Amino acid sequence: MDTLLKVGRFCFAISIAFFGFQYLLYGRFTGGLPPVPPWTPGGRVLAYVLGAALILAGLSIATPWKARLSATGLAVLFLLCVLFLHSVHASAILYNGVDRTRAFEALALSAMAFVLVGILPLEVGFLGPRNILNKLVMFGRMLFAISMIVFGVQHFMYAPFIASLIPSWIPGHLFWAYFTGSALIVAGLSVATGIFAALAAALLGIMFFLWVLVLHAPRVVAQPRNGDEWTSAFVALAFAGGSCILAAALSKARPRSSNSASATAL
């Protein structure tokens, strides 16, 4: 469990820091770069401020100095971006796959940060009541599950496009598009219901890690100046890390409930 948390926290942290670096590099809000949609006002100054904040948050979570405070800030920031910025184009989220993906990517990243807030050791960052931290884990878990189900459904809606992203040396492109879509839906339902939830989160983490290595890394190497490819790669890495964080949180919760039941019986 500790290894899962460490690996997940590092992958999530480095991804957040990289998003911040991209904001500093571009000096503007650009489509596809979480969490802020491109139509957000504020221009260059706000993009630089956000970039610096994301880098500091990523470093904080990785070190982990004030990690819970930084994770809380990220969770709230990403959630507010979904509720008050992405939702401005609510019709596009409903009917346009690109806008829907961007909104739910930000929501999933918020979910991962909420889970991280709840699972970090109490001696790290500020202290808080354990029951509140558990509720944050549950809240993040549900947001994460919803996001995975949406992504899974989109694999079926846009299967030919998903298939076109799969490397040519892998046979059965359309099969893998449907298979990964099914895996995302099943994993989301498992996480939401608690049925084999820790296992589902861990397997999701493995799947996202494989996506980084097999799908995204070659595309980045082939197009090193394409910022969208870099963003997609680090979104997948953040999802891999977040899945590990969730798996650690769910694994940690099971023994605690068992111990409590034993204590009650005694």
Helix content: over 70%
* Shape field: globular
Q: State the domain count.
A: 1
Poorly predicted residue ranges: 255-266
- DSSP summary, beta strand count: 0
Radius of gyration: 18 Å
Mean pLDDT: 91
Q: What is the string of helix and strand elements?
A: HHHHHHHHHH
Distance between the termini: 27 Å
Strand composition percent: under 5%
Structural class: mainly alpha
Number of H- or I-type helical stretches: 10
Sheet bearing the most strands, described?
none
Quickly list its features.
266 residues, mainly alpha, disordered C terminus, globular, 10 helices
Question: Any chance you could write out the topology, listing elements then pairs?
Answer:
Elements: H1 2-26, H2 43-62, H3 67-84, H4 90-95, H5 97-119, H6 130-157, H7 159-165, H8 173-193, H9 197-222, H10 227-265
Descriptive overview:
- The chain is mostly helical and 266 residues long.
- It has one domain (2-251).
- 80% of the residues lie in helices and 0% in strands.
- It is built from ten helices and no strands.
- Helix 2 (43-62) runs antiparallel to helix 3 (67-84).
- It is globular.
